[in-house]
Write a structure and sequence with these properties.
- The chain is mainly α and 252 residues long.
- It is 81% helix and 0% strand.
- The chain has helices spanning 3-11, 15-22, 32-58, 63-109, 111-123, 129-140, 143-154, 164-184, 193-218, 223-250.
- Helix 5 crosses helix 7 (143-154).
- The protein is elongated, with a radius of gyration of 26 Å.
- The relative contact order is 0.16.
- The model is unreliable at 1-11 (pLDDT under 50).
Length: 252
């Protein structure tokens, strides 16, 4: 909210109520989008390079080869995932702008219908006609507030942060790199890939468990259930890649 908008909001609130608001601090968690990007980046970063390294180790590749291929995959994956996050956020911006333009045109073209929609929305919250009529009339006198009300309560759309696209891209890419380097770490020090993969499995499964637990805590789900699910998925992916590489090598 801008300073001007904040000033307008404060003027419209009774002093005693404003005093209550000034002394009340909300403790809600509001960084959901950033956490979502971190979860996307880290989960893919831990799983994909882990499965790749396990597969190459199963094919008896050297640690240096696995490390080179793994780093290349992490770089490519980070760029790809970051670009995906950027395009997704830009699509949300474009969708919001398109719907806002359409809603704005409807407010001008069919104001009575739009006012009836406001009344219908308020009625869904149990507000009686004699109670919501002043609200409807007040919104009709303020087209910008009316438009924002319709965007939020009729269409369920929140105005995207203009910095969201770049923020999402960098967050996902950095999270992917951080997650992707964990399964590759043992290959930096253990020359034989078949030995390094054992250390990689232990380290990565532990990281997946910790990550799954943290994800469960942030998303208000069951932390241990989330931890075991995340670890299980990572283990299945790496085991499948390892076994597939062994089968291919056997028939060559």
């Amino acid at each position: 909210m801008s300073l001007e908008e904040d000033k307008i909001t404060r003027i419209s609130i009774e002093p005693e109520k404003q005093s209550l608001l000034d002394h009340h601090t909300e403790k809600h968690f509001t960084a959901g989008e950033i956490i979502r990007d971190i979860i996307i980046g880290v989960s893919d970063g831990l799983t994909v390079p882990f499965a790749l390294a396990a597969g190459l180790s199963g094919a008896n590749a050297s640690s240096s080869f696995v490390l080179t291929a793994g780093i290349a995959e992490v770089a490519a994956g980070a760029i790809s995932m970051g670009l995906g996050g950027y395009l997704a956020a830009k699509s949300e911006e474009d969708h919001y702008a398109r719907e806002m333009k359409r809603e704005q045109e409807e407010i001008v073209a069919v104001p009575e219908t739009e006012a009836a929609e406001v009344a219908e929305i308020l009625a869904q919250y149990g507000i009686e006609p004699h109670e919501y009529s002043p609200v409807v009339n007040a919104l009709r006198k303020n087209p910008q507030a009316w438009l924002e009300f319709m965007m939020r309560f009729e269409l369920g759309l929140e105005k995207p942060d203009p910095k969201r696209a770049l923020q999402s891209a960098f967050t996902i890419a950095i999270a992917y790199v951080l997650g992707g380097l964990i399964p590759l770490f043992p290959y930096m020090f253990i020359p034989h890939a078949i030995d390094a993969v054992v250390a990689s499995v232990v380290i990565t499964l532990l990281a997946l468990f910790i990550f799954g637990y943290a994800k469960g805590r942030f998303t208000d789900s069951k932390p241990f259930k989330s931890a075991f699910q995340t670890t299980f998925i990572g283990a299945i992916a790496s085991a499948a890649a390892f076994c597939f590489a062994k089968v291919v090598q056997h028939y060559q």
